[in-house]
Design goal:
disordered N terminus, globular, six-stranded parallel β-sheet, 16 helices, 15 strands
Length: 438
């Protein structure tokens, strides 16, 4: 492949969707790192949706060359701040960062109408059943395949077809878009940017281990969640009818879900004799772990379980995952962060989650995902046992997934920065199988 331009394009990146979720925090620095690996002198401007002071300080510390702008578009589609207006006018390319959906249709529509400059998507899930249908990844794939070719909504289709590129972060999304006849300039697999996140606070992790009396390589991390994030509680907003429905589903499923994670914890402690540390990927999980998970842990192991009593910074979490013997998570991004360090990992998937979890199998981690339905507590316990029976293989799988993802992100970065095409990415069960083919 040859570059279509002599110099890299300047990029306006819309990302950083939330600061109450370390997975969302990792999207931006991960993708930016991949871009800068491809071209260290690339000009990247981040336009965050939500970025807290702590998270902005981390970004400026680890990627000092990034420019961060604030502001919105008003009803007429005009930037509301001078810095956003300047970035909007000077960028060569608008990029929708890794996300659970291709959600920026209104903003991209304005860009498309008022500019002759390109735009694209970097590592998104496009789930036709969002809010998701109830089912395993296998079932959701079958359901997606049964949809008529006209199912994609016209507004979304127009924006997607006008994109220079769309990289789907899971094969179900990719197959769905292809079956719908979506025609962006490039439509290929492109991993979640979090796979390229490699910044960590080792001093904070050392203090973490010291405070809890832990030894590196001799503890496991466990991450709980509800089926639906209680955003009204987090942001202090009024509950809508849809959130009433979601809260009710949480109430009816929290027992099975946390019993499943408790079974994984019990198996870990009984098999290793080592501590299980319950940590949050989202801020609300601190209270969830203390109030709902801990009482479900069996009496014979509960003394070996510690719940972290605070929502921690991403870079501390990354460094702790590097020191953990394993990471078992009901959230999708902690397993990705664990893979950066080759730490053995499991993703305990809830049936209301989106199809994004297919990305692990796409990258060779066919045994990484445990489905709460139908696998349940027994399945989670068995998966932990299997991980411990062959830790070398589990570590190799984690490392290979990340290597495959980072390798693919190199092509994504070349497309974003230089307008190059991307090769087809073959889904396989081992890193050796995951070779790009024309």
């Amino acid at each position: 492949m040859t570059s279509t331009t002599a110099t890299p394009r300047s990029v306006l990146l819309r990302s950083s969707w939330a600061n109450v979720n370390i997975g969302d925090v990792a999207h931006s620095p991960g993708l930016i790192a991949a871009l800068l690996d491809a071209e260290p002198d690339a000009r990247i401007t981040l336009w965050p949706m939500r970025l807290g002071e702590r998270e902005e300080a981390m970004l400026r510390r680890v990627i000092p060359t990034v420019t961060i702008v604030r502001g919105d578009l008003d009803e007429a589609g005009v930037p509301t701040t001078p810095e956003l207006a300047e970035a909007w006018d000077s960028a060569d390319l608008f990029v929708h960062g890794s996300a659970a959906s291709a959600s920026l249709v209104p903003e991209l529509a304005v860009w498309r109408e008022r500019s002759d400059r390109p735009y694209g998507y970097g590592g998104v899930t496009v789930d036709p059943f969002s809010p998701p249908a109830w089912g395993s990844l296998e079932r959701l794939r079958v359901m997606t395949q049964d949809l008529p070719a006209t199912f994609l909504e016209d507004d979304a289709r127009a924006i997607i077809d006008g994109a220079e590129f769309l990289f789907a972060r899971d094969s179900i999304s990719l197959e769905y878009l292809r079956s719908q006849g979506a025609r962006p300039g490039v439509l290929e697999f492109g991993p979640d940017g979090t796979f390229a996140y490699r910044y960590r606070d080792d001093a904070a992790a050392d203090a973490f281990l010291a405070a809890l009396g832990l030894t590196a390589g001799e503890f496991g991390c466990f991450v709980p969640r509800l089926r639906y994030t209680p955003y009204p509680d987090i942001y202090g907003t009024e509950r809508t009818r849809e959130f009433d429905r979601r809260y009710a589903i949480n109430a009816g499923t929290v027992g099975l879900d946390l019993d499943t994670l408790a079974a994984a914890i019990a198996t870990w402690v009984r098999s290793t004799g080592q501590r299980a540390v319950v940590v949050p990927e989202m801020s609300y999980a601190v209270e969830l772990a203390q109030d709902e998970l801990l009482p479900r842990v069996p009496d014979d192991v509960v003394d070996q379980v510690t719940v972290l009593d605070r929502y921690w910074p991403l870079e501390e979490a990354s460094a702790v995952y590097a020191r953990a013997r394993a990471v078992v998570s009901m959230e999708c991004h902690s397993p990705i962060l664990a893979s950066v360090h080759g730490t053995p990992t499991l993703y305990v998937r809830q049936p209301t989650d989106t199809v994004k979890g297919e990305m692990f199998a796409d990258l060779g981690g066919t045994d990484v995902v445990v489905e709460i339905e139908p696998d349940g507590p027994e399945g989670a316990a068995a998966a932990v046992e299997a991980l411990l029976e062959d830790e070398a293989a589990s570590r190799a799988t984690s490392s290979a997934m990340n290597a495959a993802a980072v390798g693919r992100l190199r092509e994504v970065a070349r497309t974003i920065l230089f307008g190059e095409g991307a090769t087809e990415f073959t889904r396989g069960d081992r890193e050796a199988d995951l070779v790009p083919t024309r």
